[in-house]
Amino acid sequence: MHFDGRRRIVPIGTKGERPLTASIDILRGTLDVLVLKALSWGPSHGYDVATWIERATGDVLSVGEGTLYPALHRLRSKGWVRSSWGVSDNGRRACYYELTATGRAQLRVEKANWTRYATAVFAALAAPAKPA
Known about the structure:
4 helices; Arc Repressor Mutant, subunit A
């Protein structure tokens, strides 16, 4: 975690009182599906991906560079994302990432998995507590 002068930044977690404390696989899966979704509208550079995640989650989740770029490289090595160099809106050279056809298919799979996972967690949270 680091401080950017206005708020706490956690690699992928909550901005609330306590950071998300789930297993690294769950966190990585969360980040992967969010990155794939962020790229589903077309090529974007890393800053735009991170900004989209923050906005789309109502400023609850934030992704730092130290987490985002390794995730983008991991997704690229799986063939779900490809990258190319271009010029950003402010005239700087930037690496743009976009989904491959395999990445679009994987987004559908990941989205279905996360919907099933979230439904199961919500069901468990709504269930009455086990009597002692």
